[in-house]
Amino acid sequence: MRKHFGFLLFLLLPFQAYSQDLSADELFVKARTTAFEEKDYPKSIEITKQALQKAPNYTDISVFLGRLYTWSKDIPAARAVFEELANKNVQDEDFFIAYGSLEYWNDDNTKAIEIIDKGLTYHSQSEALWLLKAKAYYSNKEYIESEKAITSLLAINPKNTEANSLAVRINDLVSKNAINITYNYSHFDKQFTDDWHIVGVGYKRVTPIGSFILRGNYANKFAEDGTQIELEAYPRLSKTFYLYIGGAYSNDVGIFPKYRTGVSLNANLPHSFEAEIGYRQLYFSSNIWMYTASVGKYYKNFWFNIRTYITPDNKNISHSYTGTVRYYTKSAQDYFAFQIGTGISPEESRNNLLENETFKLKTFKIGVEYNFSVKRNLFSVGTMYYNQEYRPNEKGNQFDVTLGYTRKF
C-alpha cells in the first residue's frame, strides 16, 4: 500500500512543482483550456483554486470558479462563490452575468432580476444583462416587463440576434386582446374577368395556455359572394414547443373550401433557429392533403425562412417552395419583408384555386410587405405578383394588394 502511495506521490510532485512555478494568469489560462477543450470540470476547478491561492482578489478567476461550479451543477458551491463576491461589492459586468445566469437557470427568476438590476446600475449599456433580464421576465411570464427589457436592448443594438428572436415571441403575448381587419384585392390579366375582394375580421385572445384567434372572412370572387368562419389556436407545450391548430368552415364551396384543417408542431431551437412540421387539409368536393415543413433563422435584425408544401397523389407529388426574408427596424412589429417562391400555398387567400388539381400547375410569385406600429396600433401593406399556369401550357398574371390594421388592448 505504501509503495502505491509513494508511486502516486511521485507522479503528482512534478505537477505540483510545475503548478507552483506558474503565475495566476498562466494557471487561469490552463484552467480555461481544461474546461473548454478537455471538458474536465473537476480538474479545472482544482487548477482555478490554485490560481486563487496565488491571487485571492483576482475577480475574473473567482467568477470563473463560480461558473465551473454552475456547469458542474454544484449549485450551493456556486452560490457561495458569488455571494462572497457580492459581499465584497464586486462591480464587474461578468460577475452579474454569471450570478444572474445561475439563478435564471435554476428557476429563481426573481432573484436573477434583482442581481441583474444591480448590475445594470453599473453597466447600463450591457447587452448581455438586458437580454438575461428579458429572458428572466419571459420565463416568469411577465411579458410586459420582458418587452421593456428587449426594447432597451434593441435601442442599444438593433442587430442583436437573440433579442430580435425573443422580441417576436413576446410580441404575441404582451397584449391579452387584439382585433384586426385585412383587405385583399386581386387583379387578373387573363384568368378571370372579375377582380377578387376578400375582407377578414378577427379577434385574438391570449390565455395562460396560448393564443386563440376567431376570424370571419367575406369574399367576392367570380362576381359571387361567400363567407367563411375560422378558428386557430397556438397552445404552448413547453419553453421550446408549441402547436398550431386551425380549422375553417364555409357553406359557399368554390368561393372557399367547405372545410379546412391544419396542425403543426413548432419549435424555438437554440442559436435562434426555429422549425415547423405539420399538415394542411382542404375539402371542396374531395380532400386535398398537404404536408408542410419550414426552417427559420434569426441573424442580427434579419429573419430568414424557407417553407415547403408537399402534396402527394396516386400519380406524382406536387411541390411548393417559398423563401421569406424580414428586416426588423425597431421592434418585432416593424419590418420590411421580401418573399419569392413557386407553387400555391394553402395559407394564401387565393387557396380556392386548389380545386380541380390546379395546385399541380406551375406558379411563380414574388412580393414585398411593410409592417409598422404606432403605439398599440399595427399597420401593414403588401403586394404580390403571380405568374400562374391556370391551364396546361397557358399562363396568366395576377397582382395582389393587401392592407391590414390591428389594435392591441
TrEMBL record:
Regions crossing the membrane: none
Alphabetically ordered keywords of this record: Signal
NCBIfam families (UniProt xref): OMP_YaiO_dom
Alphabetical list of Pfam families matching this protein: TPR_19 (PF14559), YaiO (PF19413)
Keyword Signal in annotation: yes
Location of the YaiO beta-barrel domain: 176-348
InterPro entries noted in UniProt: Beta-barrel_YaiO, TPR-like_helical_dom_sf
Protein name per UniProt: YaiO beta-barrel domain-containing protein
Signal peptide boundaries: 1-19
Keyword Signal: yes
